Amino acid sequence: DRHVESSGEVEELVGLPAIGSIPLLRGKAHEESAAAESYQVLRTNLGFLAVESTFQVLTVTSGEAGEGKTSVTEGLGRAAVRAGQSVGRRRSCGRRRTAGSRSSSISAAA
């Protein structure tokens, strides 16, 4: 079993602290749920990490399809827009023989 069950396990495996935890939800409940608050916490914690130097690019990745990369990217983007930050998104797929990419922006109402 290669699944990780807790943030403590993640910290142990990678040797770094977890900076956020997003509850697993299905459907469009993210905006009106605990997930929205979790994305805000993640955005804030990323800001604390960038105190010494600001970063302009954040990559959200995983080893398999369907693990929530798009949901995390959109939720984090919405939290950043609500905080007054400018956000763009570029999606690329390295798993397919022909890499496709799309660019879009994320708005607070999205």
Task: Provide a descriptive summary of the structure in words.
By secondary structure, this protein is an alpha+beta fold. 35% of the residues lie in helices and 9% in strands. The protein is built from 3 helices and 2 strands; from the N terminus they run H-H-H-E-E. The protein has helices at residues 7-14, 34-49, 69-82, and strands spanning 88-92, 101-105. A two-stranded antiparallel ribbon has the order 1-2. Strand 1 and strand 2 form a beta hairpin. Helix 2 (34-49) packs across helix 3 (69-82). The longest helix has 16 residues, at 34-49.
Topology:
Blueprint: H1 7-14, H2 34-49, H3 69-82, E1 88-92, E2 101-105
Antiparallel strand pairs: 1-2
**Low-confidence segments, ≥5 residues, pLDDT <50?**
97-101
Derived from helix and strand composition plus strand pairing, the structural class reads: alpha+beta
The amount of helix comes to 25-40%
Q: Could you give the order of the helices and strands? A: HHHEE
- Ends distance: 37 Å
Largest sheet, spatial ordering of strands: 1-2
Q: Mean of the pLDDT scores?
A: 76
Q: Could you give a short account of the major beta sheet? A: 2 strands, antiparallel
Count helical runs.
3
Instruction: Say how many strands there are.
Output: 2
Strand content of the residues, in percent?
5-15%
Any idea what the radius of gyration is? 15 Å
| Overall morphology | globular
